Amino acid sequence: MAPGTTLERYVIEGRLGAGGMGIVYRARHAILGSLHAIKVVRPGTGDADRMLDEARAQACLAHPNVLPVTDVLPFDGGLAIVMEHIAEGRNLQMLLREGPLALDLLDRLANQIFAGVDAAHTAGLLHRDLKPANILLHTVDNAHVARIADFGLVQNLGGVEQAGDPQATMGTPGYAAPEQLLGSAPLDVRADVFSLGATLFEMLTGQRAFGKVDSITRFAEAQLTERPRVTHLRRDAPPRMADAIEAALQWDRARRPATVVALAAAWRGHPLAPPQRVQAAAHPTLDQFLEHPEDVRLQAHLARCPRCRVALKLAGHTAQAPQAPPPQTPSLPVRLDAFIGRHAERQALAQLIAQNVQLVTILGPGGVGKTRLALHVGAGAAVSGGVWFCDLQDAWTLDAMFSALARTLGVPLDGVEPVVKLGHAMHSLGRALIILDNLEQLLPQASTALKTWLSIAPEACLVVTSRVPPAIPGASTVALAPLPQHDAVQLFVARASELPRPPVLTDRASVARLVTRLDGLPLAIELAAARLSLFTVDQLDDRLSDRFRLLRTTTVPATDRHATLWATLDWSWSLLDPDAQRALARCSVFRGGMSTHAAEVVVGPPSVPGAAWPEETLQVLIDNSLIQVGTTDRGDRRLTLLESIRAFAADKLAELPDASTSARHHARHFARLGTPGALEGLRTHGGPRRLRTLIQERDNIAVAQHNASKLGEHEVAACCALATAAICTHVGPLPVAAAALEHCLSNGGLSAPRRLDLKLALAAVLARVRRIETATTLCEDAIQTATRLGLHVQLGHAHAGLGHLRSLQGDPAAARAHAETALGIFQQAGAAAAEATILRDLGVNHMAQGDFTSARAHLTAALTLHQQLGDRRAEGRTMANLGLLSRHCGDFSEAEKRYKVALHVLQDIGDRQSEGSVLSNLAIVYRDMGRDEDARQLYAQALTLHQRLGNRRSEGIVRGNLGTLLMVDGNLVGARAQLDTALAIHRELGNPRSEAIVRVSIASVCRRQGELSQAFGELTRALALTTAQWPLIAASCHRLLAGVCAAQGNLDQARRHLHHAERMVPPGAALDRAAVLCQRCEIEWEHGDRDIALKALDEATLIATAKHAGPMTRLGVELHARRTQVGREA
What we know:
Layout: E1 6-7, E2 10-18, E3 22-29, E4 35-41, H1 48-59, E5 69-75, E6 78-84, E7 90-91, H2 92-96, H3 103-122, E8 125-126, E9 135-140, E10 143-148, E11 155-156, H4 178-182, H5 189-205, H6 216-224, H7 230-233, H8 239-248, H9 260-267, H10 286-291, H11 296-303, H12 306-315, H13 343-354, E12 359-363, H14 370-379, E13 387-391, H15 398-409, H16 418-429, E14 433-437, H17 447-456, E15 461-466, E16 476-479, H18 485-497, H19 508-517, H20 522-529, H21 537-551, H22 560-574, H23 578-587, H24 596-603, H25 614-623, E17 628-631, E18 637-640, H26 643-655, H27 659-671, H28 676-680, H29 687-696, H30 698-710, H31 714-731, H32 734-745, H33 752-768, H34 772-789, H35 792-808, H36 812-829, H37 832-848, H38 852-869, H39 872-888, H40 892-909, H41 912-928, H42 932-948, H43 952-968, H44 972-989, H45 992-1008, H46 1012-1025, H47 1031-1047, H48 1051-1064, H49 1070-1086, H50 1090-1106, H51 1114-1126
Helix pairs in contact: 3-5, 3-9, 5-8, 8-9, 13-14, 15-16, 16-17, 18-19, 18-20, 19-21, 20-22, 21-22, 23-25, 23-26, 24-27, 27-30, 27-31, 30-31, 31-32, 31-33, 32-33, 33-34, 33-35, 34-35, 35-36, 35-37, 36-37, 37-38, 37-39, 38-39, 39-40, 39-41, 40-41, 41-42, 41-43, 42-43, 43-44, 43-45, 44-45, 45-46, ...
């Protein structure tokens, strides 16, 4: 457009430049005379839709480090975006032409860029084209201020973008992340983290991180070459900056900082948390692997990709099993604003932690800064076990506290006593710092749990924030008083400087007077500072004085400082418009945070035509520091209310005439997570993601059930209870699920199908905690009710549940009959997910009974269905069942492959408990194959993982297996130590099957040590523990008893035990039969019946040949010993 052209109310003055999507003009507002930049689509590009996306993206970001959009105009069939004009017209790219930046300027600009990008991510936006040319520089008080611009490639983080989408491959090579250019995976905030790394590299060194690349191919080539470290290009580069840049520029996004906040923390010198495991790139990199099969990095990526595994198998390749990743990494909330004051308290807390004090309480009133102090000192604590932060503000029961801590530590709570399990998980961390924030509402009930944890985990340091101290002898206290005036003034000024239009505060005396009136409470100071966009300091002081006088003559909380905070909150409330007041009050019904969508549902539409919509009202509350904005571990936006503000807002909600409406909307919204369709979705494609969402909302679901019951909406409450049961089935604690379901069943007003769903869910939970009789009664009643009402799917679930209970009661035939009945019902009803589950159960049943042919058929059919449905968790577990089946059949090679595939799947979805079991089972296969060192390494990984999860039962199993391995290696002392520990664990937990297995191994150690009578006693006790469900264990007992009896000279009894062993070995268990034959060969040869001995040896040799059991396998070693005994060559 030529100068002088009028575009509605703007007059074009000239052309400023051109970008990837449009031309930018300088224009002046015809009435106001203000300067603006107007960006229009290039003629013929057809990018109007994306231009509108850009306008909307920037318009919703009111942040000092984001270039604001002020208007959108129609232009020539497309759009023109009106933005603030930067007078200097410079961007960061122009500045970098002068060379690398001075460190102080670099640090200041970097922090501004971090803040701007984080604001975009918090608003749910991904920039996707961050680079120096898109960072404008504005001069304020002779200092550069960074403004992020050009959101033309913006993507909504809440939207759906598929890998391979052409839009995802847009971006600038050399700055865009590899996954963005290759289109290999849906993008998340780590794509912008990579671009920031490349930008920071250039700011620090004056050179582009990957040279001048102009295409995706050149960029990929540059990635394969050794990129110089920034410290080689700039000697004075601080290590903190260099390390942060290196972390951001990782090719594998799983190794990058998870958020911009994490990158900013690393830039400031905080240690980076170990990377979280994420799903690897999918099939676009398959061709690369086929060309370079030796590339370990590609192997690790492809081994976790289901589609790649199939393709690799067809191509004749096998991806290597990766090492077990760390089970969980600590993560502290990081704030971008500076911590101010508290020097003495910081030093005192840090010293107590360094002195290995077990329990420290940070004591003080609400709003005094207890949490900030704990986080700040915790971030710098030198503890080998990490720093773990658990927010308990929404935990009002001990079970809720245990659940919150279990989520923090990544520990699933099953039927085991949660206090003990969490204690063992803490113990496994060693010297760890665990912050329990907002514990006061749980005292003194929580004191017993605290004492237990301190006893089980003596190395751990528990830091508790509370308004009251726990009554525990020996606990240390750091008491927080209000901020001294100097620090309070500094805090007020700092928060004021973060406003979009920071005020100039020249009268520090007025500020000092104001913060003194606020009693030096940090929260009150921050709330007041947020209002400086509307009032001067003196005006704030006047209005606060009026509010204090009013409240102190009416109802105020008990303490003066609490009254000050309450008055500040009431004053903030009075400045809100009615819609914002109503929105804040309604948001008080949430617990544990809220998504933006959930908040909008509860806040509701505008009260009158023309009023603000919920998203606008929520932004007002955010701008006034009444709602906090954070992100989940997946980068989703999460809104929260500080407990003091939530309590205040709840009081205000009670005063509203429609208070119950908020609770009703909240309950109905979260009840949707417990509908049959939603719960079925947990077992289909996207199930792990839905499960994470479900777990994240467990506090909201619990309060939704409570409110729905109070309101008489019993169907809604039932759905919430079913959602709680689904959560607790995966992560516990199971007693919480049982209580929720039993409470709903005690209410009237439920439909018959819903009551039946509750009974079946309760039966499943009770079966897990071994309340067998009650669970059986529920299932039997459910069968009668479902039959009477013609509810076929529920009838199938009732039979499936009863079959599982019969299995626990030691009746495999009845278990199989009920399972087969359920299978027929599910197949007829087309309930594919339930059919797959029951097929797997039948496969496990057949395998336990030695019917390996039927087991393979059922498990293979189950695996196919699970894969078709996209149920990754069930796929991994079923694949592991097939690995166990292959081992029983003696096919070690096939067992190894199955277990490796299962391991990759389970690691992908984060099922760490099953992952530990697969590691242990794969170690057994390696032990059977004679690969003792590989087995030892996997046992060590599995043991560490189970200890970390507080999983005592699995720890006992691994210790038992490790003891057996040490015994075979000749380390009898080490073997006995591991086996004795395993035995104690299984007896403590009441696990007869595992106890029997360990006793068999202890007997083997005793026999090798010549302690025959003790070996006989252990085997007799083991045999007494076995049932018809465990024929292989019984066969092992009889086989070893035969050897002990023969060694004691009792040949007839030895032969009787051999006969029992041969009878009990299932037909398909060839290796177990070979072991019995070897035992017969040994006994008969020593007692003179050479023909029977040689016949047994020949048969065992044939089995070894058929099963490819080489000389280094367990069977191969035993056969060699028997051949040596009889004087035969192999």
